[in-house]
Amino acid sequence: MQKSQFIYGLRAIIEAIDSETAINKVYLQKGLGGELFVQLENKLRKAGITTSYVPFQKLNKLVRGNHQGAVATVSPVSFSVFEELVDQVCASKKTPLFLLLDRVSDVRNFGAIIRTAVCTGVDGIIVPSSGSAPVTSDTVKTSAGAVFNIPIAKVNHMKDAVYYLQASGVNVVAATEKTTNTLFDLDLKKPLAIIMGAEDKGISPAVLKIVDHLAQIPMAGSIASLNVSVACGVFLYETVRQRGA
């Protein structure tokens, strides 16, 4: 990661949060205190920004300047406002296609998914504010630059995102092994949002309960599942096939 992707210093990070800079993660020095430090902690908690407490030496390796015990990594892209993105796409397209990633945490998987999403005409990607892979230089590289060509929005709760999409007339389909319904039996020509789950745990049970459809990819052989980026590609290209694009 290049030095330009860091913000450091207590007040500098506070100002970045106040100006809604796209911060991926903040590293704070273990055992540090003080009024300004506590103020930063409160803002990080309120904004839902991932925080990690690390030794002083870790911060020194990240930056060479006077970091004051706080270093933030900054996303190379700006994020869209979720509601504005959905409203705009639904108003301008008859059959919008959204992709929701429920805690996909590997940056390379994220990058590969973004690349496929752009190639298949996805109108926007939605990720949770915490627990998901950040957009880093590795994400940009794996996506082959596609990350700059698709809107990405963050939400505090995936359930709220599902409810908003449903209220906007969008059918929500969850990719999961916890069903006998297959992807190929679904009508994907309607306004659609596809949810892919975390690499290890899949989609959260609370989200699975409220979606419109559950669907799996038929599997043969002894391997029970596909890599999430590959599975996402199967779902998206079946959508493309059905829509005749």
TrEMBL record:
Recorded GO CC terms: cytosol
Chain segments annotated as coiled-coil in the UniProt record: none
Every RNA 2-O ribose methyltransferase substrate binding domain range: 6-80
One Pfam family, short name: SpoU_sub_bind
GO MF terms held by the record: RNA binding; RNA methyltransferase activity
Keywords: Methyltransferase, Transferase
Family matches, as SUPFAM superfamilies: alpha/beta knot, L30e-like
SMART domains membership: SpoU_sub_bind
Name by which UniProt lists this protein: 23S rRNA (Guanosine(2251)-2'-O)-methyltransferase RlmB
Originating species: Lentiprolixibacter aurantiacus
Phylogenetic classification of the source organism: Bacteria, Pseudomonadati, Bacteroidota, Flavobacteriia, Flavobacteriales
Recorded name of the encoding gene: rlmB
